[in-house]
Amino acid sequence: xxxxxxxxxxxxxxxxxxxxxxxxxxxxxxxxxxxxxxxxxxxxxxxxxxxxxxxxxxxxxxxxxxxxxxxxxxxxxxxxxxxxxxxxxxxxxxxxxxxxxxxxxxxxxxxxxxxxxxxxxxxxxxxxxxxxxxxxxxxxxxxxxxxxxxxxxxxxxxxxxxxxxxxxxxxxxxxxxxxxxxxxxxxxxxxxxxxxxxxxxxxxxxxxxxxxxxxxx
Length: 217
Prior knowledge:
It contains 10 helices and 6 strands. The protein is of the alpha/beta class. It is globular. The termini are far apart.
């Protein structure tokens, strides 16, 4: 049997979790390793079980889905996040993607979209419910516009891109260092390299650039 993808389901509604579990259980490629009803319980299970994929609601007690996305980014191991929610608003969609969600599934389309989202995510590809297709296209267009105006972004390393995104989320060098398990000096060196590559000059130029484009970095 091919290697199974381990999955954690996080939602505060038992019937929804059961429906998700039943849908996923039909595919032998996926292995549900745990379930949680709130964000704090979910983070404890993530730490102990280290699932490859977490399916998260946004509206949850203790830690909501967006807060969980922030917490997942600080872990020393990767967890791919799929948002499964009733929210269809573009600002919520963008907020989730800004925080690292790789797929966004609207609950009313879950029966058709969830397995497709899981299959895409296991291939390292994003997935959005069709109701958000236009929002995804607008987001992609803005990313392309940013790359056209600042093609040097393509020269940034993975670490530099990650640090630039965290700067745009108002993280200090110390907070970035703690999040990425680096020294503050290493983070500051990366920041200097980013400024050099992007031709940014002045004390606050990096911060301003990261703030202005945080949604599309």
